Amino acid sequence: MSNIIKGFIIGIGKIVPGVSGSMLAISLGVYEKALMIVANIRKASFKNLYFLLTLSIGAFIGITIFSRAIKYLLDIYYLPTMLLFIGLIIGGITELVKEVKKEKLNSLNGLIFILSLTFSYTLTLLGHNQLMISENFFIYFIIGLIEAFSSIVPGISGTAIFMSLGVYDLLLTFFSNIFNSAYFIFGIFFLLGVLTGIFLLAKLITYLLKNYKGKTYIVILGFMLSSIVLMFQKIWHYDVTVLNLIIGLVLLVIGYKITIKISKLMTTD
C-alpha cells in the first residue's frame, strides 16, 4: 500500500507544471530502485516486478483521477497549488544534499553544478514557439519520448516543457479521458514513445549512478534548484493576493513536512 501511495503522489506531480515526477520519486526514496529494475527488467525478480507494478498503479491512479482536479486548481488556485508542490520538492532536497556532501568540494564538482543548473533552467525556458499538433502520429511519439526523458532525468518538468510547446492542455485532457476511445490512437503512439525513451535512458542513468553517483547527484541537485527557481518565477506572473499568498505559504510548509515525513518512513521500512 505504501508504494501505491508513493506512486499516487508521483502521478499527481507528473501533471503539475514545473514539478518533476522523478524529483518526487527521489524525495520519496523510490527513484534509484525503480530505475535499476527498469534497466534490468529481464533479470528482475518477482518482488522487484511487484514493487514496480504497485508504483505504476499508484502513478496511473494519481494521473487519471487528479487530471481534472489539477486543471481546475491551476485555473482557480494557481498560487497555493504551486506552492504546495514546491514544498514537496524542497522537502526532498535534504536527502539529496546528504548524497552530494559525500563528494569532495572542488572546482570540477562546482563547474558540474553550475552547468547542470544553467542547462536545466535554459532547457525549460526553451520552446516559446509553440508546437503545432497535427494528424501526424509521429509527433505524439516524440511527445512520449519527451515525457520519458523528463521521467528519467530528475529536475526536468515534462509538463513545463509541454506547456512551452503548446501541448499541455491536450495531454491533460487525454489523461482525464484516458478510457475514451477517441484518444486510443494518440495513446498508443504516446505510450510507445514513453516506453522507448524509458528503456533507452534507464540504462544510461543507472550506469551513471553506479559509477559516478556523487557527480550524478550534483547534476540532479542543479536540476532541482533550477526547477524551483523557475516555478517561483512562473508564480509571480499571476495575480497574487494576500490571502492566496498566506494559504500558499502554509501549504508550502505542509508539503515540505509531508515529504520529510514520508522520507523518514521510507528509511524505517
In words, what does this structure look like?
- The protein has one domain (2-267).
- 79% of the residues lie in helices and 0% in strands.
- It has 12 helices and no strands.
- The longest helix is centred in the first third of the chain and has 31 residues, at 46-76.
- Residues 127-134 have low confidence and may be disordered.
Count of DSSP-assigned helices = 12
Uncertain ranges: 127-134
Return the average pLDDT rounded to an integer. 78
Fraction of residues in helix: over 70%
Strand composition percent: under 5%
**C-alpha-based Rg, rounded:** 18 Å
Shape: globular
SSE map:
Blueprint: H1 2-14, H2 21-27, H3 31-39, H4 46-76, H5 78-100, H6 107-125, H7 137-152, H8 158-165, H9 168-176, H10 184-211, H11 213-235, H12 242-267
What labels would you give this structure?
about 270 residues, mainly alpha, globular
Write a brief structural summary.
The protein has one domain (2-267). It has twelve helices and no strands.
